[in-house]
Design a protein that fits this description.
The chain is mainly alpha-helical. Helix content is 71%, strand content 8%. Helix 1 packs across helix 5. Keywords: DNA-binding, Transcription, Transcription regulation. This is MarR family transcriptional regulator.
C-alpha cells in the first residue's frame, strides 16, 4: 500500500494535472484555429514569431519555440516553398541565415493574426482580466523557479 503523501506534495501533483489539462484544452483550441487557417501549430508559431519579432536567425527560431533544429529547417523549407517566408544571409556573418516573412506571408498574417487572437481570447475567457494578470505573474514565478532548479540540477550532474 502507498504511503500517504504530505499536503504540499498532493497539491503539487494536483496543480500539475490541472495545469496540464488546461494547457491541452487551450492548445487544442488554438491548434484547431491554425488548422482552419491552413497551418499546423508549428508552422503558425514560426510565422507568428516572424510577424511580431521580424527577421530571425534560423538557428535561434527552434530554441525560442522549443523545436529541434532539424524540425525548424523542415518548417522553414515548407513555408518558403509555399511563399510565406524567405531567407537571406546575415551581412556580418555569412554562416548565419535569417528567415523573414515574404510580402505574401506578411499580408496573410495581417489577416490571420486578429482572427487567431480572437480565438485565443475566447479560449481564455474563463478568467477575468484581473485573474489573467494574476495567472501571468504566478506562471512566470513558477517557470522561473523550475528553470533555476533545473540549472542547479544539471550543473551538479555535469
Amino acid at each position: 500500500m502507498h504511503e500517504r503523501m504530505d499536503r504540499e506534495t498532493e497539491a503539487s501533483l494536483h496543480l500539475f494535472r490541472v495545469f496540464s489539462k488546461a494547457f491541452k484544452s487551450i492548445s487544442d483550441h488554438t491548434a484547431a484555429g491554425c488548422k482552419q487557417e491552413g497551418f499546423n501549430p508549428t508552422d503558425f508559431a514560426v510565422l507568428e514569431m516572424l510577424y511580431y519579432k521580424g527577421p530571425q536567425p534560423i538557428q535561434q527560431i527552434g530554441s525560442k519555440l522549443l523545436l529541434q533544429s532539424g524540425n525548424i529547417t523542415y518548417v522553414i523549407d515548407k513555408l518558403e516553398r509555399n511563399g510565406y517566408v524567405k531567407r537571406h544571409p546575415c551581412t556580418k556573418d555569412r554562416r548565419v541565415i535569417y528567415a523573414e516573412l515574404s510580402e505574401s506571408g506578411w499580408q496573410s498574417m495581417k489577416l490571420i493574426v486578429p482572427r487567431q487572437a480572437h480565438m485565443l481570447r475566447r479560449a481564455l475567457s474563463g478568467l477575468t482580466m484581473k485573474e489573467k494578470d494574476q495567472a501571468i505573474a504566478l506562471l512566470k514565478k513558477l517557470g522561473l523557479q523550475a528553470e533555476r532548479l533545473a540549472l542547479i540540477h544539471y550543473a551538479k550532474n555535469e
